[in-house]
Amino acid sequence: MKLIGVTSCPSGVAHTYMAAEALETAAKAKGWDAKIETQGAIGIENELTAADVEAADVVVLTKDIAIKKEERFAGKKIVRVTVTQAAKQAPEIIAKLESMLAQA
Prior knowledge:
Blueprint: E1 2-7, H1 14-29, E2 33-40, E3 43-45, H2 50-55, E4 58-62, E5 78-81, H3 83-88, H4 90-103
Parallel strand pairs: 1-2, 1-4, 4-5
Antiparallel strand pairs: 2-3
Helix pairs in contact: 1-4
């Protein structure tokens, strides 16, 4: 499975990066390939490429503030979570995604 995502929070500092790291760690623990873009106070980092988006099975977006360039995910399975959920409940989010994708 390939997971991509974008994390961002209102202040664009710690939670943005904590959420990205948590999602990547939880996905990789399940044997998934994961790449998470951050949209923080210093701009976009680890930017997702068109190839990343094309290859993705699922997209996780945080919903605390608007995600820049969200239109690039059109047609993909998108799951929206808060940045706090991503940071604190990443293993549970990955487990739910795994179950959702298995039923698809």
